[in-house]
Every structure is written in C-alpha cells, then in structure tokens.
C-alpha cells in the first residue's frame, strides 16, 4: 500500500532512496490519490497544493475510485452517477452514508413477532427517507460549523481588555464568563440560521434528530463497571433518549458542537472491531463533560433546548408532527417486506451489521431493580402454572 507522505522511487539508481510525496510523477500520484479513502483525499487536498491541482484536473478518474474504496459494499449509495464527478459529490457521500447507516441500524426486534424497524441500506425502498435524513445531517453540519467559526474567530484577547489579561489567568470566573459569551454568540447565529432555512430543511433535521436519539442506549444488559454511567443529566439516563430529542440533555448540546464527524468516526472511519471505536462517542462525551464546569454545562444545556424549540417552530411540529415522525416509513416498509416475502422475493443484502451503531451507557440502577422484580414475578407465575397443571 502506498504511503500518503513518502514512497520509494522505483527508477532511482540507488535502491531504497526515498522521495517526497510532492516529487512523485503525476501518474503515480493519481494512482495513490485514487486508492485513498475520502477523508484522506480531502486532507491531502487541503495540505498539498500539487495534490489539490491533480484532484481538480483528474476528478473524473479519482472521485469514483475513492468512493468505491471508501464504500466497497454500498452499491445503492453509488448507484446514481452524477453527470460530472466533483469533490463536492465526494463530500456529500458522507451525510448520505450516515443517513444509510441511521435508517438501516434503527431497529427494534421483538422475539414474538420478529418485527423490525429499519430499512437495509441496499434496499431502494428507503431512498426517500435516506434523502431526508441526509439533508438533516447537512443541517447539523452547518450548525456545528457555526460553533467552529465563532471559536476560531474569537481570540482570547478579543473578549476582555488587554489590561485584564493577568486577572483572567487568576480568576476562573472570568474564563467561565468568556465561555458563556462565546456560547451566547453561537446561539444567536444558530437561531438566525434556523429562522432562515426552508421549511423542508427544518423538517428533515427534526426527523434526523428523532432517529438519532435511538443510538444512545442504556440497555438492561449494560451492567457493571465496564459500562460508563450517563452522567450528563438527572436520572442516569433513565429517560435519556427523550431528553436528547427535546434538547433537554447536555448530550444534545454536545452533538450540536461536534456535528456529524462524531458519528462518522465511530460508525465508519475507525476500525470497527476496536473497543475505542465502539465507545468513541461515549468516551469523548464523558471526557468533554468532565472538563466542563457545571455552571457552563447548564448554560449549554439551556441553549440546546432553545435550538430544539426553534427547530420545532420552523418545522411546524405542533401542527404537522406526521412529517417529522419516522415510524410511518418503517411500518409501510414492514408491509412491503411482508408482501415481498409472500411473493417469493429475496430480502435486500445486509451490509451494515458490522457498524458499531449504539452509544452504550450503564443501565440505571432503578431499571435494573425493576427488571429483577419483573423476572421474579415471571418465575413465580410460571411456578404456579406448573403446580396448577400438576
């Protein structure tokens, strides 16, 4: 495999002599660029003027190869070829793939009915829903970029007079106030953006966020010290998904701050079998939370709630909840799937079973105790049933 930074010069008179990436012949560079994953290609495009020039000139050759390298099994994702390949087309594969994963992995199975919520990524039936979810990811990207812009354009000295520099170093309350002011600036820009977006964008974002809440889980099987607790809100996550959807969880703010990259890394770019990938989102959230003063966290949580309220208003959720409810898509697909099965049609190929979709937290102790009581009651009922039959 070629290195992105250095490669052996095969034609050099001395074996083992190495040359810089930028000094390689064009044809070799094009081969290397074509074998990159999309993230590596986008990084090279930003860091190497030569790579940027070649990518621009040979996009029609490089882009489809990079797409196949990054998404080797996702034929439906790449089925619709553009009239002209562009870097923007490559970048847009990321929200589209995140949408495919979210729609595919959003599943609830019941042993007694084998009911499944979720549409396989390779089933074209889910294309309409995936398109809306992808648009929701794009809105999240813009909301996250607003925060990055504020932080990058706000040098520390711009928030306080230069004469107060030494005081700021000594006074944590000054740093807290500086952080609060930045969050206020971010909120103001985000609210203005939400107010400006089309109705459909607001609906698609709300729909995506509704589905995204299902990735955060405090399953009854998550017991013991190996599972980190939900420390961000009251109740240890007992009502975490609902709090997240409403923006009442600190995790809602965290996702707004991190954007789609958070899920792109855990779901796709990190090695799927490594523990660090399976718990990437959880561990990063816990780490950021631990370094955030509680007063600032409360401020951030309040801002997340205001963002969700603004989205609800822009999406007309109160009068048209059906348009942001994902369940009808899945119930209609269940009917289609049954009809296909009766007609002898094979199900769509499964390609997302390896994705570490869930963000796992420790099950709250209250739920553990309730589950124990349920099992004890069930066992007692079975015992009485056996005794009655005997």
Automatic annotation (TrEMBL):
Record-linked SUPFAM superfamilies: F-box domain
Organism this protein belongs to: Didymella rabiei
Domain of life: Eukaryota
Pfam families associated with the record: F-box-like (PF12937)
Protein name in UniProt: Uncharacterized protein
């Amino acid at each position: 495999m070629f290195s992105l930074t250095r490669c052996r010069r095969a034609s050099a008179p001395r074996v083992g002599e190495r040359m810089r990436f930028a000094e390689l012949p064009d044809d070799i560079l094009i081969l290397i660029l074509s074998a990159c994953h999309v993230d590596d290609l986008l990084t090279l495009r930003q860091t190497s003027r030569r790579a940027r020039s070649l990518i621009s000139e040979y996009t029609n050759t490089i882009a489809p190869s990079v797409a196949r390298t990054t998404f080797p099994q996702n034929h439906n994702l790449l089925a619709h070829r553009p009239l002209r390949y562009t870097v923007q087309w490559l970048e847009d594969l990321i929200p589209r793939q995140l949408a495919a994963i979210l729609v595919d992995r959003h599943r609830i199975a019941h042993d007694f009915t084998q009911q499944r919520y979720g549409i396989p990524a390779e089933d074209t039936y889910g294309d309409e829903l995936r398109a809306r979810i992808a648009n929701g990811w794009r809105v999240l990207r813009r909301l996250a970029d607003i925060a990055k812009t504020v932080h990058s354009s706000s040098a520390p000295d711009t928030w306080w007079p230069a004469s107060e520099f030494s005081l700021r170093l000594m006074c944590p309350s000054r740093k807290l106030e500086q952080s609060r002011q930045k969050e206020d600036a971010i909120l103001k820009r985000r609210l203005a953006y939400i107010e400006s977006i089309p109705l459909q964008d607001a609906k698609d974002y709300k729909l995506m966020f509704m589905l995204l809440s299902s990735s955060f889980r405090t399953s009854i099987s998550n017991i013991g010290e190996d599972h980190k607790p939900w420390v961000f809100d009251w109740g240890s996550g007992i009502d975490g998904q609902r709090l997240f959807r409403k923006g009442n969880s600190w995790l809602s703010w965290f996702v707004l701050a991190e954007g789609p990259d958070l899920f792109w890394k855990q779901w796709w770019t990190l090695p799927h079998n490594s523990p660090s990938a399976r718990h990437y989102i959880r561990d990063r959230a816990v780490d950021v939370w631990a370094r955030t003063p509680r007063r600032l966290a409360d401020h951030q949580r309040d801002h997340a709630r205001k963002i969700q309220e603004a989205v609800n208003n822009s999406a007309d959720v109160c009068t048209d909840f059906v348009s942001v409810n994902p369940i009808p898509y899945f119930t209609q697909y269940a009917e289609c799937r049954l009809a296909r099965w009766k007609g002898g049609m094979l199900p769509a190929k499964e390609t997302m079973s390896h994705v570490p979709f869930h963000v796992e937290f420790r099950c709250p102790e209250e739920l553990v105790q309730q589950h124990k009581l349920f099992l004890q009651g069930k066992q007692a009922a079975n015992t009485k049933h056996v005794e009655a039959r005997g």
